[in-house]
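Handout, section 4.2: multi-component inputs.
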Amino acid sequence: MIPAQFDYVRPASLAEACRALASDEDAKVLAGGQSLLPLLRLRLAYPSALVDVARLPELAGVHDRGDHVFVGAMATHDEVLRSGVVNADCPLLSLAVATVADPAVRHRGTVGGSLAHADPAGDLPAVVLALDGVFVARSEEGEREIPAAEFFVDYWESALRPGEILVGVKIPKLGPGWGFHYEKFHRTAQSWAIVGVAAAVRRFRPARSNGAIQEARIGLTNMGATPVRARAVEAALRGVELGEQVRQACEEADDGTTPPADLHAQPDYRRHLARVLTHRAVLAAAGSP
Amino acid sequence: MTEVGRARRRKEDARLLTGRTRWTDNLQQPGTLHVMFLRSPIAHARIARVDVSAARGLPGVVAAFGGQDFAEEQGSLPCAWPVSDDIVIPDHPPMAVSEVRYVGEAVACVVATDRYRAADALEAIEVDYEPLPAVLDMHDALTEGSPKVHDAGNQAFSVKITSGDLEGAFRDAPVVIDRTFIQQRLIPSAMEPRAVMAATDGDTFTLWSSTQIPHVLRVMLAVVTGIPEHKLRVIAPDVGGGFGSKLQVTAEEVLCLLLTRRLGRPVKWTESRSEGNLTVHHGRDQIQHVRLAAEADGRIRGLQVDLLADMGAYLMLVTPGVPMLGASMFNAIYKMDAYEFACTGVFTTKMPTDAYRGAGRPEATYAIERIMDELAAELGVDPLEVRRRNWIRHEEFPYTTISGLTYDSGNYEAATDRAIALFGYDKLRAEQADRRDRGDAVQLGIGVSTYTEMCGLAPSRLLGMAKYGAGGWEHGSVRMLPTGKVEVITGTSPHGQGHVTAWSQIAADALGVPFEDVSVIHGDTAIAPKGMDTYGSRSLVVGGVAVLKACEKVRDKARTLAAHVLECSPDDLEFAEGAFKVRGTEAQRTIQELAYAAFTAHDLPDGVEPRLDSDATFDPDNYSFPHGTHLCAVEVDTETGMAKIRSYVAVDDVGKVVNPLIVEGQVHGGIAQGVAQALFEEAVYDAEGNLLTATMADYLLPSAADLPTFVTDRTETPATSNPLGVKGVGEAGTIASTPAVVNAVVDALRPHGIHDVQMPCTPERVWRALEGARR
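Output:
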């Protein structure tokens, strides 16, 4: 559990960080270190240098930007959990963050680090996908934006290019009338999700149509090489009143997924869980017990 | 008020909690070198070549060796428990020389000026392996034509013990229950990983190790390495948990000693957690075939147990003895006319197994308590009622069981009645019935475990009969210092149990001195020279009693001295509150005054030596038998398969309690560890023999967040086999809880026609059982 030798660089500005990263193709970005350091210690990764971006002001904090919330890449899970604007305008994020590991990890781990790690078993990718977040990346070539739907490429692979640093993620505010829920299924409090479901549901106002579902957005954790949008369920839920039809709609939750097999679950069980948990998440987000 | 029985806060904790500890890894010797081991990535292979030359040339590397470099002097790691005449004890080189037999076995090592350089140098070592077939399944291993782990074959030993007319018991039995239970392989996870440091002055050797057994280790290391025993000192500094995993003579301990002998410099090794998952000896791993014959009213006629026990690749210190510790315990608290225990030890290409909290007794208790629930279900009788019809009634003690043990005391009725009341048994049964009627997606299950166990290891005579390589006595010595303070030296070796506190309480009462005036010294063969160490819930039952006996000898000496000083007969003296008083007068001497008088020795009676001190050895004439009733309610989500404990009641009878707070802690931790086997933990090897659960991300340990609030209580039926009346509590919770939880899970699923779920009862396993039942 001792990493191989590496250089440690702590740039003072984002521009300097981009330069450091561009000048060394074997360098890696170090954020909170909750995923990267175990990889180094197990000698599963041998970066030549770590560019520590944890204290860069450009990547810090959670900001209210009017129509969206900008979560700086180096905002820790704990900061998000305590953020007024997140809890008011995109509470799905804090609901999911609250389930991440334990308080020690939540104090060190960062939202940007977790997203850039692109682990489909991580809790935040499915949430940002469900909320149609937009990733902001910076390199020496400049800044670009990447929609969530294009950000997650494969297991532990994002659309970030070599030399690019994740600056933060824009989470659009959905406005009033939405309910949220993150349903995480895991065996111990500190273990990864076997399957997770991030749900945002908006219902018609009761006066108009008995409170039927107007729109739903559903992201699935650990159901494939990337987080997955359960589009079939989203479509099937449109206009549906709470009841048996919701359950039927959620039967399509595993459509188009390619769930992995591991020690905790085989694919068929994950598919089953996705259906059951999606149903639960939708009902909870819709405000129904 | 006596000290014994008080919920004293532990003397150990302020230091431990504020980090002022002496873990082996924190100790420093000038010029210490750091050792790291290269470990086999292959389960079974011939070693064609080990080349350490490139590693030797790297900066900071002082030495690098392959197994061949120590072939002549490393000896064989010992097995101290040859359980049968047919046992095969294969040679077990600390560093593999010609063949590796499990993933993680050491094949080479590097000694460097720091750990970073040592870790780098490991990557420069070249090893050529010629793969051999892995041997993983015990049934397959015993078939003709199976690849062999060792030349002598894959059977390590085989024993069969029968009492009573087994055939008669099963012939025409109205009820026969036949079940096979799997005890999955577990990885002990002590909070402090193993660590070893060794140093020499050219003549004598000192070994510091995170061990439970400094005394046993000293003897064994002397035998293995040839270092004369009187030239070897073993120290167990602060040790952060063991659970049996540090009841071992490890390859790393032997090799650190050999490296310091060869290099003449101190060396240190500390394992990483993932290294530990691979190479700390594992626990459990049995296939249990159990048959029970009963009358139509549920009374047991006979019990037949046939075990396959996975030894792993080698026999370590007590590997074969672990299943044998359960040999007399499958019959548990129940009366029956016939009993047979058979066990075959099997070699596989996995990490060796050995003692893990409970060692043999959790396995036995699980099997009998599971099958008692199966019997109850078969008969349609409440599981507690089936137990009542079979258990030894409290007026029948002492009771000699079918397996030949004599239980000295117990009161199963009292513990069970108390547990039922605390649990709200009838109310939960009513809720269960209601949920079943409603077809609720969340079903409720209730699990029962009326366990007993055999601990306080142990009477030396009985250990000898069981072919164990050592005795089971324990030693204590007590010295009163000139200022009246007390030092207790114990042969037990605490690693989290709180001996310093409990022994202080015992000595304070026996000598009439304040609790604060007692210190307890342990864990160093030069300072506490006699001992048999800490395992098997033995420390209080054997070692605590030895301390009491030593205190009594000191008190007797003080009485002689007091009579001399006060010019009276010793019989005229009464001892109370730390002073000897001449009956009917005001004349008295405190024990502290007497300690000073014994120190100055100005006026001692003839034949009395200076100083108030003494020592004593205690060797009990029987084991002790804690018992209790644990009740568990589990909610099973039939849609996801998730089983969650809703409530848990433990009523334990561990005899007389010295410190309720410590007992409480042991029970809580014990239950957590037993629940872990029931629901969470499993060491998994793949088809090639690779350990898939080498990190904590894959090997799931439950934390406080995953466990319910335990409701605990006690009944107190003193043991009659020792003067303190104590029984031991280190393993009780672990032994009791596993079957209580699994019985509850199965109880929830029984209406679906499900009669067993393999441990750990993961959501996926429960879901698959339900899917199977739906088809």
